[in-house]
Amino acid sequence: MSTKFDFGRTMLVVRSQRLGITTRIGVRTVVVCAILLAIALATAVFALGTGDFPIPAQRVVRALFIGDERFDRLVVWDWRLPRILLALALGAALGVSGAILQSVTRNPLGSPDIIGFSTGAYTGALLVILIIGGGSFQTAAGAMVGGLGAALVIHLLAFRHNVTGFRLIIVGIGVSAMLASVNTWLIMRADLDAAMSAAAWGMGSLNGLSWPQVLPTMLILGVLALALIPAAPRLQILELGDDTARALGVNASKATGWLIALSVAFTSLATAVAGPIAFVALAAPHLARRLTRTPSIALVPAAAMGAALLVVCDWIAQRAFAPTTIPVGIVTGSVGGLYLAYLLVAEARRK
User: Fold this and answer.
1) Secondary-structure class of domain 44-349 per CATH
2) Which residue ranges make up each domain of the chain?
3) Lowest mean pLDDT: which of 59-73, 188-202, 278-292?
Protein backbone atom coordinates (compact mmCIF):
# COMPACT_ATOMS: atom_id res chain seq x y z
CA MET A 1 0.00 0.00 0.00
CA SER A 2 1.49 3.33 -1.02
CA THR A 3 0.65 6.76 0.36
CA LYS A 4 0.55 9.80 -1.86
CA PHE A 5 1.80 13.08 -0.38
CA ASP A 6 0.27 16.40 -1.31
CA PHE A 7 3.17 18.83 -1.92
CA GLY A 8 0.80 21.67 -2.78
CA ARG A 9 2.12 21.79 -6.36
CA THR A 10 2.46 19.52 -9.33
CA MET A 11 5.53 17.30 -9.04
CA LEU A 12 7.45 15.40 -11.66
CA VAL A 13 8.94 12.10 -10.41
CA VAL A 14 12.27 11.14 -12.00
CA ARG A 15 13.57 7.60 -11.44
CA SER A 16 16.83 6.02 -12.55
CA GLN A 17 16.84 2.26 -12.01
CA ARG A 18 20.49 2.02 -13.06
CA LEU A 19 21.63 4.56 -10.42
CA GLY A 20 18.91 3.66 -7.93
CA ILE A 21 17.84 7.30 -7.61
CA THR A 22 14.32 8.70 -7.28
CA THR A 23 13.74 12.45 -7.09
CA ARG A 24 10.82 14.84 -7.37
CA ILE A 25 10.97 18.09 -9.31
CA GLY A 26 8.28 20.75 -9.37
CA VAL A 27 6.79 21.22 -12.83
CA ARG A 28 6.68 24.98 -12.29
CA THR A 29 10.39 24.95 -11.40
CA VAL A 30 11.22 23.15 -14.65
CA VAL A 31 9.16 25.61 -16.68
CA VAL A 32 10.71 28.65 -14.95
CA CYS A 33 14.25 27.32 -15.50
CA ALA A 34 13.48 26.65 -19.17
CA ILE A 35 12.13 30.19 -19.64
CA LEU A 36 15.11 31.76 -17.86
CA LEU A 37 17.58 29.77 -19.96
CA ALA A 38 15.68 30.73 -23.11
CA ILE A 39 15.90 34.42 -22.12
CA ALA A 40 19.61 34.09 -21.36
CA LEU A 41 20.37 32.32 -24.66
CA ALA A 42 18.20 34.71 -26.71
CA THR A 43 19.96 37.69 -25.12
CA ALA A 44 23.32 36.03 -25.78
CA VAL A 45 22.51 35.61 -29.50
CA PHE A 46 21.25 39.21 -29.65
CA ALA A 47 24.40 40.48 -27.90
CA LEU A 48 26.63 38.48 -30.27
CA GLY A 49 25.01 40.26 -33.19
CA THR A 50 25.15 43.84 -31.90
CA GLY A 51 28.10 46.20 -31.87
CA ASP A 52 30.29 48.05 -34.32
CA PHE A 53 29.74 45.22 -36.82
CA PRO A 54 26.05 44.25 -36.54
CA ILE A 55 25.16 40.72 -37.60
CA PRO A 56 21.57 39.42 -37.94
CA ALA A 57 20.52 36.68 -35.53
CA GLN A 58 20.30 33.98 -38.21
CA ARG A 59 23.86 34.72 -39.31
CA VAL A 60 25.00 34.62 -35.66
CA VAL A 61 23.52 31.13 -35.28
CA ARG A 62 25.05 30.10 -38.61
CA ALA A 63 28.46 31.41 -37.52
CA LEU A 64 28.20 29.48 -34.25
CA PHE A 65 27.28 26.10 -35.74
CA ILE A 66 28.42 26.16 -39.38
CA GLY A 67 31.01 28.94 -39.66
CA ASP A 68 31.16 29.16 -43.47
CA GLU A 69 31.36 33.00 -43.41
CA ARG A 70 34.88 33.85 -42.31
CA PHE A 71 34.21 37.42 -41.13
CA ASP A 72 31.06 36.46 -39.20
CA ARG A 73 32.96 33.63 -37.52
CA LEU A 74 35.79 36.00 -36.61
CA VAL A 75 33.45 38.54 -35.02
CA VAL A 76 31.24 36.02 -33.25
CA TRP A 77 33.77 33.42 -32.10
CA ASP A 78 36.94 35.44 -31.56
CA TRP A 79 35.65 38.86 -30.52
CA ARG A 80 32.32 38.44 -28.73
CA LEU A 81 31.66 34.84 -27.69
CA PRO A 82 34.22 34.64 -24.81
CA ARG A 83 32.60 37.61 -23.08
CA ILE A 84 29.11 36.14 -23.44
CA LEU A 85 30.18 32.70 -22.18
CA LEU A 86 31.84 34.27 -19.14
CA ALA A 87 28.76 36.41 -18.46
CA LEU A 88 26.57 33.30 -18.44
CA ALA A 89 29.01 31.23 -16.36
CA LEU A 90 29.87 33.91 -13.79
CA GLY A 91 26.21 34.92 -13.44
CA ALA A 92 25.32 31.31 -12.68
CA ALA A 93 28.21 31.08 -10.18
CA LEU A 94 27.06 34.21 -8.35
CA GLY A 95 23.46 32.95 -8.29
CA VAL A 96 24.54 29.64 -6.77
CA SER A 97 26.81 31.40 -4.26
CA GLY A 98 23.98 33.64 -3.07
CA ALA A 99 21.51 30.74 -2.89
CA ILE A 100 23.88 28.70 -0.70
CA LEU A 101 24.56 31.56 1.69
CA GLN A 102 20.92 32.59 2.00
CA SER A 103 19.94 28.99 2.76
CA VAL A 104 22.70 28.53 5.34
CA THR A 105 22.02 31.83 7.11
CA ARG A 106 18.25 31.48 6.66
CA ASN A 107 18.20 35.18 5.91
CA PRO A 108 17.35 36.97 2.62
CA LEU A 109 20.21 39.42 3.25
CA GLY A 110 22.75 36.62 3.44
CA SER A 111 24.65 37.55 0.29
CA PRO A 112 28.41 37.47 -0.42
CA ASP A 113 28.14 41.18 -1.33
CA ILE A 114 26.78 42.14 2.08
CA ILE A 115 28.64 39.68 4.29
CA GLY A 116 31.99 40.76 2.89
CA PHE A 117 33.32 37.85 0.85
CA SER A 118 33.41 39.97 -2.32
CA THR A 119 35.14 42.80 -0.45
CA GLY A 120 37.75 40.34 0.85
CA ALA A 121 38.39 39.10 -2.69
CA TYR A 122 38.80 42.72 -3.80
CA THR A 123 41.29 43.32 -0.99
CA GLY A 124 43.35 40.32 -2.09
CA ALA A 125 43.38 41.52 -5.69
CA LEU A 126 44.32 45.06 -4.64
CA LEU A 127 47.28 43.80 -2.62
CA VAL A 128 48.54 41.93 -5.68
CA ILE A 129 47.97 44.82 -8.11
CA LEU A 130 49.32 47.65 -5.96
CA ILE A 131 52.02 46.01 -3.86
CA ILE A 132 53.26 42.97 -5.79
CA GLY A 133 52.47 44.34 -9.25
CA GLY A 134 51.27 40.97 -10.51
CA GLY A 135 49.52 40.18 -13.79
CA SER A 136 46.05 38.81 -14.42
CA PHE A 137 46.83 35.29 -13.13
CA GLN A 138 48.39 36.60 -9.91
CA THR A 139 45.46 39.02 -9.46
CA ALA A 140 42.99 36.17 -9.84
CA ALA A 141 44.92 34.10 -7.31
CA GLY A 142 45.02 37.06 -4.93
CA ALA A 143 41.25 37.50 -5.22
CA MET A 144 40.67 33.83 -4.43
CA VAL A 145 42.97 33.95 -1.41
CA GLY A 146 41.43 37.23 -0.23
CA GLY A 147 37.88 35.90 -0.46
CA LEU A 148 38.71 32.70 1.37
CA GLY A 149 40.71 34.60 4.01
CA ALA A 150 37.84 37.01 4.66
CA ALA A 151 35.43 34.08 4.94
CA LEU A 152 37.72 32.34 7.44
CA VAL A 153 38.02 35.48 9.62
CA ILE A 154 34.25 36.07 9.53
CA HIS A 155 33.56 32.41 10.32
CA LEU A 156 35.95 32.43 13.32
CA LEU A 157 34.56 35.70 14.69
CA ALA A 158 30.96 34.52 14.26
CA PHE A 159 31.58 31.06 15.70
CA ARG A 160 30.20 30.45 19.16
CA HIS A 161 29.24 26.80 19.71
CA ASN A 162 27.83 26.99 16.20
CA VAL A 163 27.45 29.46 13.32
CA THR A 164 24.06 31.19 13.28
CA GLY A 165 22.81 33.15 10.33
CA PHE A 166 22.14 36.48 12.04
CA ARG A 167 25.51 36.58 13.82
CA LEU A 168 27.32 35.65 10.62
CA ILE A 169 25.64 38.52 8.75
CA ILE A 170 26.35 41.09 11.47
CA VAL A 171 30.01 40.06 11.78
CA GLY A 172 30.29 39.98 7.99
CA ILE A 173 28.95 43.51 7.62
CA GLY A 174 31.49 44.74 10.18
CA VAL A 175 34.42 42.97 8.53
CA SER A 176 33.25 44.18 5.11
CA ALA A 177 33.26 47.79 6.35
CA MET A 178 36.78 47.38 7.70
CA LEU A 179 38.04 45.82 4.47
CA ALA A 180 36.38 48.57 2.43
CA SER A 181 38.35 51.12 4.46
CA VAL A 182 41.56 49.17 3.83
CA ASN A 183 40.78 49.08 0.12
CA THR A 184 40.28 52.85 0.02
CA TRP A 185 43.54 53.41 1.90
CA LEU A 186 45.43 51.13 -0.49
CA ILE A 187 44.13 53.00 -3.54
CA MET A 188 44.89 56.42 -2.00
CA ARG A 189 48.50 55.41 -1.32
CA ALA A 190 49.10 54.03 -4.81
CA ASP A 191 50.47 55.99 -7.75
CA LEU A 192 47.96 57.39 -10.20
CA ASP A 193 48.20 54.75 -12.94
CA ALA A 194 48.03 51.81 -10.53
CA ALA A 195 45.18 53.42 -8.59
CA MET A 196 43.15 53.99 -11.77
CA SER A 197 43.76 50.41 -12.89
CA ALA A 198 42.74 49.02 -9.51
CA ALA A 199 39.67 51.26 -9.29
CA ALA A 200 38.55 50.23 -12.80
CA TRP A 201 38.97 46.55 -11.90
CA GLY A 202 37.05 47.12 -8.68
CA MET A 203 33.93 48.23 -10.53
CA GLY A 204 33.44 44.75 -11.97
CA SER A 205 33.77 44.50 -15.71
CA LEU A 206 33.79 41.88 -18.47
CA ASN A 207 35.68 44.17 -20.83
CA GLY A 208 38.81 42.66 -22.36
CA LEU A 209 38.07 39.06 -21.36
CA SER A 210 38.97 36.52 -24.03
CA TRP A 211 39.42 32.79 -24.61
CA PRO A 212 42.46 32.38 -22.29
CA GLN A 213 40.15 33.20 -19.35
CA VAL A 214 37.27 30.98 -20.52
CA LEU A 215 38.75 27.48 -20.24
CA PRO A 216 40.26 27.83 -16.71
CA THR A 217 37.04 29.43 -15.48
CA MET A 218 34.88 26.63 -16.89
CA LEU A 219 37.18 23.95 -15.46
CA ILE A 220 37.12 25.45 -11.96
CA LEU A 221 33.35 25.94 -12.14
CA GLY A 222 32.96 22.32 -13.16
CA VAL A 223 35.01 21.15 -10.18
CA LEU A 224 33.02 23.35 -7.79
CA ALA A 225 29.72 22.09 -9.26
CA LEU A 226 30.83 18.47 -8.75
CA ALA A 227 31.81 19.27 -5.15
CA LEU A 228 28.42 20.87 -4.58
CA ILE A 229 26.33 17.88 -5.74
CA PRO A 230 26.74 15.73 -2.59
CA ALA A 231 26.38 18.76 -0.27
CA ALA A 232 23.30 20.29 -1.93
CA PRO A 233 20.68 17.98 -0.29
CA ARG A 234 21.82 19.22 3.14
CA LEU A 235 20.73 22.79 2.32
CA GLN A 236 17.03 22.08 2.70
CA ILE A 237 17.68 20.19 5.95
CA LEU A 238 19.75 23.08 7.38
CA GLU A 239 16.92 25.49 6.57
CA LEU A 240 14.83 23.61 9.16
CA GLY A 241 17.24 24.67 11.91
CA ASP A 242 20.38 23.20 13.46
CA ASP A 243 18.52 21.15 16.07
CA THR A 244 16.26 19.56 13.46
CA ALA A 245 19.25 18.92 11.22
CA ARG A 246 21.07 17.11 14.02
CA ALA A 247 17.93 15.10 14.76
CA LEU A 248 17.93 14.01 11.12
CA GLY A 249 21.55 12.89 11.36
CA VAL A 250 23.26 15.90 9.76
CA ASN A 251 26.36 17.40 11.40
CA ALA A 252 25.14 21.01 11.18
CA SER A 253 28.49 22.68 11.95
CA LYS A 254 30.45 20.60 9.45
CA ALA A 255 27.83 20.90 6.72
CA THR A 256 27.51 24.68 7.26
CA GLY A 257 31.26 25.23 7.11
CA TRP A 258 31.61 23.16 3.91
CA LEU A 259 28.71 24.93 2.20
CA ILE A 260 30.02 28.38 3.17
CA ALA A 261 33.42 27.42 1.75
CA LEU A 262 31.77 26.47 -1.55
CA SER A 263 29.81 29.73 -1.59
CA VAL A 264 33.02 31.69 -1.06
CA ALA A 265 34.77 29.73 -3.80
CA PHE A 266 32.02 30.53 -6.34
CA THR A 267 32.09 34.23 -5.42
CA SER A 268 35.87 34.46 -5.34
CA LEU A 269 36.13 32.84 -8.76
CA ALA A 270 33.73 35.38 -10.27
CA THR A 271 35.60 38.22 -8.55
CA ALA A 272 38.95 36.88 -9.68
CA VAL A 273 37.85 36.84 -13.33
CA ALA A 274 35.77 40.01 -13.62
CA GLY A 275 36.14 41.97 -10.38
CA PRO A 276 33.41 42.40 -7.75
CA ILE A 277 30.03 42.35 -9.55
CA ALA A 278 27.47 43.60 -7.07
CA PHE A 279 24.01 42.32 -6.16
CA VAL A 280 23.63 39.43 -8.63
CA ALA A 281 24.25 36.97 -5.79
CA LEU A 282 21.68 38.81 -3.67
CA ALA A 283 18.88 39.25 -6.21
CA ALA A 284 19.08 36.04 -8.28
CA PRO A 285 17.99 33.56 -5.54
CA HIS A 286 15.15 35.87 -4.44
CA LEU A 287 13.77 36.41 -7.91
CA ALA A 288 14.07 32.71 -8.76
CA ARG A 289 12.23 31.71 -5.59
CA ARG A 290 9.43 34.17 -6.28
CA LEU A 291 8.98 32.79 -9.78
CA THR A 292 9.16 29.11 -8.81
CA ARG A 293 7.15 29.63 -5.58
CA THR A 294 9.17 26.95 -3.82
CA PRO A 295 9.29 26.78 -0.01
CA SER A 296 13.10 26.93 -0.03
CA ILE A 297 15.80 28.43 -2.22
CA ALA A 298 16.72 26.10 -5.07
CA LEU A 299 20.17 26.14 -6.67
CA VAL A 300 19.34 25.47 -10.33
CA PRO A 301 16.72 28.25 -10.69
CA ALA A 302 19.10 30.64 -8.88
CA ALA A 303 21.88 29.73 -11.33
CA ALA A 304 19.58 30.24 -14.33
CA MET A 305 18.39 33.59 -12.97
CA GLY A 306 21.97 34.72 -12.26
CA ALA A 307 23.05 33.85 -15.81
CA ALA A 308 20.07 35.68 -17.31
CA LEU A 309 20.60 38.75 -15.09
CA LEU A 310 24.30 39.12 -15.82
CA VAL A 311 24.07 38.63 -19.58
CA VAL A 312 21.22 41.16 -19.82
CA CYS A 313 23.04 43.68 -17.58
CA ASP A 314 26.22 43.22 -19.61
CA TRP A 315 24.39 43.97 -22.84
CA ILE A 316 22.97 47.12 -21.22
CA ALA A 317 26.49 48.08 -20.07
CA GLN A 318 27.76 47.72 -23.64
CA ARG A 319 24.96 49.46 -25.49
CA ALA A 320 23.23 51.96 -23.16
CA PHE A 321 25.92 54.63 -23.64
CA ALA A 322 27.43 53.37 -26.92
CA PRO A 323 30.08 53.83 -28.16
CA THR A 324 31.24 54.09 -24.52
CA THR A 325 31.12 50.78 -22.64
CA ILE A 326 30.64 51.04 -18.90
CA PRO A 327 31.55 48.29 -16.36
CA VAL A 328 28.75 45.80 -15.85
CA GLY A 329 29.16 46.22 -12.08
CA ILE A 330 27.71 49.73 -12.38
CA VAL A 331 24.55 48.35 -14.03
CA THR A 332 24.13 45.48 -11.56
CA GLY A 333 24.81 47.87 -8.67
CA SER A 334 22.13 50.30 -9.87
CA VAL A 335 19.53 47.59 -10.41
CA GLY A 336 20.51 45.68 -7.28
CA GLY A 337 20.47 48.79 -5.10
CA LEU A 338 16.82 49.36 -5.96
CA TYR A 339 16.06 45.71 -5.27
CA LEU A 340 17.90 45.84 -1.91
CA ALA A 341 15.85 48.90 -0.89
CA TYR A 342 12.66 47.03 -1.81
CA LEU A 343 13.86 43.98 0.12
CA LEU A 344 14.61 45.98 3.28
CA VAL A 345 11.19 47.67 3.16
CA ALA A 346 9.46 44.31 2.62
CA GLU A 347 11.37 42.73 5.53
CA ALA A 348 10.50 45.66 7.80
CA ARG A 349 6.82 45.35 6.94
CA ARG A 350 6.86 41.59 7.42
CA LYS A 351 8.28 41.96 10.95
Assistant:
1) mainly alpha
2) 44-349
3) 188-202
